[in-house]
Amino acid sequence: MNDKKIKNVFIEGAISSEFIGRSIAKHQTKTSIGAHNIFLGQVRADEVDEKTIYAIEYTAYKDMANAKFHDIREATFKKFDLTCMHIYHSLGTVKVGEICLFVFVSSPRRKQVFKALEYVVEEIKAKVPVYGKEIFEDASHQWKVNS
Question: In sequence order, which residues have a C-beta less than 8 Å from that of residue 109 and are 6 or more positions away?
Answer without folding.
Answer: 34, 35, 81
